[in-house]
UniProtKB/TrEMBL annotation, chain A:
<keyword id="KW-0411">Iron-sulfur</keyword>
<dbReference type="InterPro" id="IPR012675">
    <property type="entry name" value="Beta-grasp_dom_sf"/>
</dbReference>
<keyword id="KW-0408">Iron</keyword>
<dbReference type="InterPro" id="IPR001041">
    <property type="entry name" value="2Fe-2S_ferredoxin-type"/>
</dbReference>
<keyword id="KW-0560">Oxidoreductase</keyword>
<keyword id="KW-0479">Metal-binding</keyword>
<dbReference type="InterPro" id="IPR036010">
    <property type="entry name" value="2Fe-2S_ferredoxin-like_sf"/>
</dbReference>
<dbReference type="InterPro" id="IPR002888">
    <property type="entry name" value="2Fe-2S-bd"/>
</dbReference>
<keyword id="KW-0001">2Fe-2S</keyword>
<dbReference type="InterPro" id="IPR036884">
    <property type="entry name" value="2Fe-2S-bd_dom_sf"/>
</dbReference>
<protein>
    <submittedName>
        <fullName>(2Fe-2S)-binding protein</fullName>
        <ecNumber>1.2.5.3</ecNumber>
    </submittedName>
</protein>
<dbReference type="GO" id="GO:0051537">
    <property type="term" value="F:2 iron, 2 sulfur cluster binding"/>
</dbReference>
<dbReference type="Pfam" id="PF01799">
    <property type="entry name" value="Fer2_2"/>
</dbReference>
<feature type="domain" description="2Fe-2S ferredoxin-type">
    <location>
        <begin position="2"/>
        <end position="78"/>
    </location>
</feature>
<dbReference type="Pfam" id="PF00111">
    <property type="entry name" value="Fer2"/>
</dbReference>
<dbReference type="GO" id="GO:0046872">
    <property type="term" value="F:metal ion binding"/>
</dbReference>
<dbReference type="GO" id="GO:0008805">
    <property type="term" value="F:carbon-monoxide oxygenase activity"/>
</dbReference>
Length: 161, 780
């Protein structure tokens, strides 16, 4: 057992976990942040994507201990109170989700994509960048639309800040 | 249409919880004292279980129990059932071997459970499972359907000699033979419909809790049809009587058919929770999903189509071998028979059809309904045949289809189905216009100049949906009725709860079902909530599959609404001292037509519950329920056209354009309908280009993770160009046909027809991987 100290969604936490505990297990089982999902166990599907120090990572493929000292943001931590993150709003407005299982990971990956590419996003880039997130419901059509829509919204909201 | 009524593109009410991480799936639920199950699964495709030594595992920390197949059989938990009886052509019933929830003696596919460890945590259960020693005696195995029917093949079940479950026929063989005898041309085709793994993104899970004082079980499970699960668990698996068993399917992360069935893991979780006296949770991992979720498709077919001298189809002969895997899953028997061969007429006037289907056991994961279930296999076969015929007869493929379309409705096909309505020319026209079909030769020439092989492929699909009426499916062998039920509760403050037996696992019922209420009452959808997925709350339900939730489930809601409205009008008329016949409902008010007299819905509701001033003899309250059974299947149909390019140097396919023109009857929410089509199309494209659940000759699965099984990714597929043509379904009052499966049914033939057009060779199997396409291009 080890104590892992990290910041999750802005709150400092210290959790005693078995050394083999995965980051996703720490989030789901110890902190009850069940918005982060497990879809494949092999780092393929991306349902488990969270942000570590602002970068998208697959939380099923790293040990909780590797996140010691890091700042983790999960799907539960991106809205400002009742105000949705522009990516969340764009997924809703563009019908970018159906069963909702891949959605948290999709949204976390998509925010990272927009951050990395700034305003230089087109459909082909979004499709290539989403390669590590699998959705079985939407056929990606509306997810791609949502990410492109959100890229515009995020630019506007950044400019306003 | 109001802003939230029928036909409006209303954003989904349910989305907020999903986009904020507040969805509640089975694995998200925790119970006090909860234990965790890990199954010990056979690594062999066929073996005798000679012994299980769990002594070391039982000594490990945190291990609560190790339970075996022998114990579950001894405790009289029932064997898994197949709920659709099929009769062979010789009149004999289908031949089935027993399928216990965990194998006491013989395992017949890799992944079949022989024992389960119950422990304090998931990791401890997994650790202990490593310490359980199972002594297997390997037996010869067979995975391929054609190998399995050869004499001398390894035999799976003594009840099914030759591994044959049934040999079933449909249609008029004599009339079909006569048509072929007179044919001017005969077109022949062999096709394999590749085996697929459904892969809903949420792996299956179960959380069972036994209350010893009440002798009552609660099961949270990933189900598309919780009431059917309760019925089967109760009536056939002897878990508990229905009133002592509550089944809850909370948020469910996709189904695609794979979550219709009641699986061994749910049975074991329930049984184990009573044995250990604590809640038991099992959550599958992805490899378990590949090994144990019912697979789809897996047909090998030879077909011949006869044409007269005017290129009119005169007959169709089909022989299909359907691979069922090692056991007959819940509805497996119906998939290659009544859901497949009854659609072999496609959109065409075919006077004589004869089909034979041979169902076969192999040492593979059981096969059952997967999005489309039989209809994709039928549509793929017919549309590959039509394309092959056009090439052989040297006519335009669109024109060949058009000249054989059914244009008069209703139309009785030679294979049971009576198509109620449709306009196949309209959807073909819409698709051809959308893709600029006439301009294709010029585009092909231009692509050729750039070294690319460009092709265009048409697919005109039809499906039978709703999977009802009950009387019809009963006459064909179904063990259940396939109606739907609903209840409308108007609360005393005027808000409305709709309780439905349909189950939403991505379909958006919490929005679309509210839109019907908004349409009829003129209230905002924020005043309406949808309750589903809980056998303690909803009176009954047959669940969601077969594109049935709107056509059948929503109509049940309509029927309950009509009863409620009728009573509410009486109350309103009484309060307004008017005639009931003069009451109209508008904007949430009951108005006396032609006057300014009105009473708002909340006041009517309140009057119903205070019961101070109701018409004489009227019961208090405002709540009605209905069971709805349609009069026919529904028949969604449409045309998909795919244009793509093949790189002759690599065999890689790139999409240029993909258009879909569907006739789903009335659309409740076009945004959601489009989403259903997008998802279905990608499953069809996935089958055509990427997906294949592969076994080696000894029954070892070689595609049991996302590392090995090619799921469609965002960069594998295009955006789509969708449109709708409309003929209203006469079989239900809303005119709805259903949209959930169409994409998966029609897409794969469009893709393969386009690739074979591009490369100029007709024989190409799915998935058309670059390797396979390249080899086909360069084959002698």
């Amino acid at each position: 057992m080890s104590t892992v100290k990290l910041t999750v969604n802005g709150k400092a936490v210290a959790v005693d976990v078995e050394d083999r505990t995965l980051l996703v297990q720490l989030l789901r089982d110890h902190l009850n942040l069940t918005g982060t999902h497990v879809g494949c166990d092999t780092s393929q599907c991306g349902a488990c994507v969270v942000h570590m120090d602002g970068r998208a990572v697959k939380s099923c493929t790293m040990l909780a201990g590797q996140a010691d000292g890091a700042s983790i943001t999960t799907i539960e931590g991106i809205a400002k109170g009742d105000e949705l993150h522009p990516m969340q709003a764009a997924f809703r407005d563009n019908h970018g989700l159906q069963c909702g299982y891949c959605t948290p990971g999709m949204i976390m990956s998509a925010i990272d994509i927009v951050h990395r590419h700034g305003g230089q996003l087109d459909e082909a880039t979004v499709r290539t960048e989403l390669e590590g997130n699998i959705c079985r419901c939407t056929g990606y059509h509306n997810i791609v639309k949502a990410v492109l829509d959100a890229a515009g919204r995020m630019k506007v909201s950044q400019a306003a800040e | 249409m109001g802003v939230e009524g029928i036909g409006a593109r209303v954003v989904r009410k349910e989305d907020k919880r999903f986009i904020t991480g507040k969805g509640r799936y089975v694995d998200d639920i925790k119970m006090v004292g909860m234990t965790h199950a890990h199954f010990i699964r056979s690594p062999h495709a066929h073996a005798k279980v000679k012994g299980i030594d769990s002594s070391a595992a039982l000594k490990m920390p945190g291990v609560v129990a190790v339970l075996t197949g022998r114990e579950i059989v001894d405790d009289k938990v029932g064997n898994l059932i197949c709920g659709w009886a099929i009769t062979s052509k010789d009149g004999s019933p289908m031949k089935m071997g027993a399928w216990p929830a965990m194998a006491p003696e013989t395992v017949r596919f890799v992944g079949q459970a022989v024992a389960v460890v119950i422990a304090e945590s998931k990791n401890l259960a997994r650790d202990a499972a490593e310490a359980v020693v199972v002594n297997y005696e390997e037996l010869p195995a067979v995975a391929d359907v054609q190998a399995a029917i050869k004499s001398g093949a390894p035999q799976l079940h003594p009840e099914a000699p030759g591994n044959q479950v049934y040999d079933w026929v449909i249609g008029d063989e004599g009339a079909t033979d006569a048509a072929f005898a007179k044919a001017a041309n005969v077109v022949k085709l062999d096709v394999t419909n590749n085996r697929l793994a459904p892969n809903a993104m949420e792996p299956r899970a179960a959380l069972a809790d036994y209350d010893a004082a009440e002798e009552h079980f609660t099961l949270y499970t990933t189900s598309q049809n919780p009431h059917v699960a309760r019925l089967v668990l109760s009536a056939f698996y002897n878990i508990a009587p229905e009133h002592k068993l509550r089944v809850i399917a909370p948020d469910v992360g996709g189904g695609f058919g794979s979550k219709i069935f009641i699986y061994p893991e749910e049975m074991v979780a329930l049984w184990a929770s009573k044995k250990v006296g604590r809640p038991v949770k099992w959550t599958g991992d992805r490899t378990e999903a590949f090994l144990t979720d019912a697979h789809g498709r897996d047909h090998v077919t030879h077909a011949e189509m006869a044409f007269d001298a005017n290129n009119k189809i005169t007959g169709l002969k089909v022989k299909t071998y359907a691979n069922f895997g090692a056991y007959m899953s819940l509805f497996s028997s119906s998939v290659p028979t009544y859901l497949y061969a009854t659609l072999l007429s496609g959109q065409y006037n075919i006077p004589a059809i004869h089909a034979e289907v041979i169902g076969v056991y192999t040492n593979t994961t059981p096969v059952d309904a997967y999005r489309g279930a039989g209809r994709p296999e039928a549509s793929y076969l017919i549309e590959r045949l039509m394309e092959t015929a056009a090439r052989q007869l040297k006519v335009d493929p669109a024109q060949l289809r058009r000249s054989n379309f059914i244009t008069q409705f209703p139309h009785q096909t030679p294979v049971i189905m009576a198509y109620d309505t449709g306009d196949f020319n309209a959807s073909l026209d819409a698709a051809m216009k959308a893709i600029d079909y006439a301009g294709f030769p010029a585009r092909k020439a231009q692509a050729k100049a750039q070294g690319k092989l460009r092709g265009i492929g048409v697919s005109c699909y039809i499906e039978a949906c709703g999977i009802a009426p009950s009387k019809a499916v009963g006459s064909l062998g179904a063990g259940v009725g396939l109606w739907e039920s609903a209840e409308v509760r108007v609360n005393p403050v005027g808000t409305i709860e709709i309780l439905t037996g349909s189950h939403s696992h991505g379909q958006g019922h919490e929005t679309t079902f509210c839109q019907l209420v908004a349409e009829r009452l003129g209230v905002p959808i924020s005043q309406v909530s949808i309750v589903h997925g809980d056998t303690d709350k909803v009176q009954f339900g047959m669940g969601t599959y077969g594109s049935r939730s709107a056509a059948v489930g929503l109509t049940a809601i309509l029927k309950a609404m009509e009863k409620m409205e009728s009573k509410a009008k009486k109350i309103a008329a009484h309060a307004l001292e008017a005639s009931e016949a003069d009451i109209v409902i508008e904007n949430g008010e009951f108005k006396v037509t032609g006057t300014d007299k009105a009473i708002a819905l909340p006041m009517v509701a309140l009057a119903a519950y205070t019961a101070h001033n109701l018409p004489d003899g009227m019961e208090p309250g405002l709540k009605e329920s209905a069971f709805y059974d349609p009069t026919n299947f529904t028949f969604p149909a449409g045309t998909y056209i795919c244009e793509l390019e093949v790189d002759p140097g690599t065999g890689k396919t790139s999409f240029v354009n993909f258009v879909a023109a569907d006739d789903f009857g009335r659309l409740i929410n076009p945004m959601i309908v489009e989403g259903q089509v997008h998802g279905g199309l990608v499953q069809g494209i996935g089958q055509a280009l990427l997906e294949h659940a592969i076994y080696d000759a000894n029954g070892q699965p070689v595609t049991a993770s996302f590392m090995d099984y090619a799921m469609p990714r965002a960069d594998d597929v295009p955006s789509f160009n969708l449109s709708h043509t409309t003929t209203l379904c006469p079989g239900n009052p809303l005119g709805i046909k259903g949209c959930g499966e169409a994409g998966a049914i029609g897409a794969s033939a469009a893709v393969i027809n386009a690739i074979t057009d591009a490369i100029g060779k007709n024989n190409l199997e799915m998935p058309a991987t670059p390797d396979r396409v390249w080899r086909t291009i360069h084959a002698a």
